[in-house]
DNA sequence: ATCGCATTGATAGTTACTACCAGATTGGTA
DNA sequence: TACCAATCTGGTAGTAACTATCAATGCGAT
């Protein structure tokens, strides 16, 4: 509720031009209550109810598959559940938040930090042996490239006002980056992940 | 001068526990002067004198080479000039800034935003045709993975107190992510960049 | 010596965020 | 119904980052 008013006001007047007090007034609560639920002003846009289960999804995927296939499949699957057909309201809300995240420097920075933490979680979920530093480098690069593909797809999706299906966009971005045989539904390659 | 005092104080007392006013006092200037030179407190750590020439280096590299080879080579070359032998003072300063950037959330977020802007600059410097969206996806993933390798190498370097040579670390991270034939000095692969 | 001109400084104000404490609301129990 | 505990909410006061505006200071050139 508070978050909905916040995103609306930020979109109408701009993020920096809107004070937390104004958000509180619009939501009919005190500024204290806002700070109680959202520790920082940025959280009013960045926090989302649907928690991140992607890391678990990756850990549950078959370890024999290549890294980008495991990560990419989890990303596509999560996007599909997130932007389902009967969730148009949530979809518009997600679009509004996304637009703010992309265009507002403070929000973009915090978002990228979250994404980086997510990347670390993915690398841990992959559960490769920590003893081999090469494997860690490997996983970092694969996770980073997958998240870059996700981000590129999200930006494209926002520019498109959500008309294109998000899972398809992610799959397209992954295919462009890694090759068609790497995305879910395609054939399983014999090799592992990005190697020229 | 101001920046040196800032990094020292942030390291000694912690970033959040140090006020800009204290930095100003240590440097013997007024807080206004600090804000004049460094618009935000974060800039006291993030701003560096040696500007980013890497994008130009990439643009100057042979376009026939694979993407990660072009980007990776530029990163290694820049790191080599940045941490040269007779720059021990700068090296210690860089290490101190790096430690702060890694451990302080606000600094890390701003740093990642800078890195993302850098990624966009790399993609533009690659100068692939903008008409093909697949090529854009492609370049984003390649640049992102290279920067992830760079970041992983930087973290390792900082943990190692700068004892290992930074260019070698970057080359190792790139080799682990993309294969030995992709880093500068290795053979030129016939293909392009990451494709399983 | 004086005139630009750039750098610095002081003052006052806005806003995000915190610490602390007081009242209200809710839900379970006798 | 009456009561108690816990959680939610609100007010007050304070800190610190950052901004706008204007005054003072140094400094080289004519």
UniProtKB/TrEMBL annotation, chains A, B:
It comes from the Bacteria. Signal peptide: none annotated. Residues 19-38 bind DNA. It holds the Pfam family TetR_N. InterPro entries: Homeodomain-like_sf (IPR009057), HTH-type_TetR-like_transc_reg (IPR050109), HTH_TetR (IPR001647), MftR_C (IPR041347). Coiled coil: none annotated. Residues 1-56 form the HTH tetR-type domain. Keywords: DNA-binding. This is TetR/AcrR family transcriptional regulator. It comes from Nonomuraea harbinensis.
